Amino acid sequence: MFRITMLGKKTGAAAPDNNDHNTAESPAPGAPGEPGKTMPEQLAQNLKTQGDAMIQYGARLLVMRELLCSLTTGLPPAARASAEQRFRQRINQLMSLTDDHVLPAEFHRALLAEVNYYLGELKKP
After folding, report:
1. How far does the chain reach from its first CA to its final CA, in angstroms?
2. CA pair distance 31, 38, nearest whole angstrom
3. Residue 24, helix vs strand vs coil
4. E strands along 1-125, which residues?
5. Distance between CA 29 and CA 57 in Å, rounded?
6. How confident is the prediction along the chain (125 residues), in pLDDT tens digits per residue?
7. How far apart (Å, rounded) are the C-alpha atoms in residues 51 and 66?
8. By C-alpha distance, which of 110, 29, 125, 34 is closest to 74?
9. Distance of alpha carbon 27 from alpha carbon 82, whole angstroms
10. Segment Disordered: which positions (predicted)?
11. pTM (two decimals)
12. To the nearest 10°, the Cα dihedral for 39, 18, 6, 1?
């Protein structure tokens, strides 16, 4: 962590008086509901919780993806063609909505990869 004197120099703020012996360096206080936890411990816990949530979300998406692919394989050719047409229309609408917002390139790459994957599944015999 930064010392207050270093932080003061970096931000241009006045550094505290180094002669003040009443200030002891101590870990950052914990959150009100978590006594005794330092800031790095809280950060590590938050990162682990978010990482676990992303893994769970990814697993759910994979299951949905496989379900959709299974459903498309059971469709007759005419229904697949109709589904592909509707899918393309909806994706065009979605793409026009995303044009109104600045989104990272990773979003666009992932979106196009998924669209191409599902279009490929719809075209399979």
Report:
1. 59
2. 8
3. coil
4. none
5. 32
6. 334 444 444 444 444 454 544 444 444 444 455 666 788 888 989 999 999 999 999 999 999 999 998 998 889 999 999 999 999 999 999 989 888 888 899 988 999 999 999 999 888 87
7. 23
8. 125
9. 62
10. 1-40
11. 0.57
12. -20
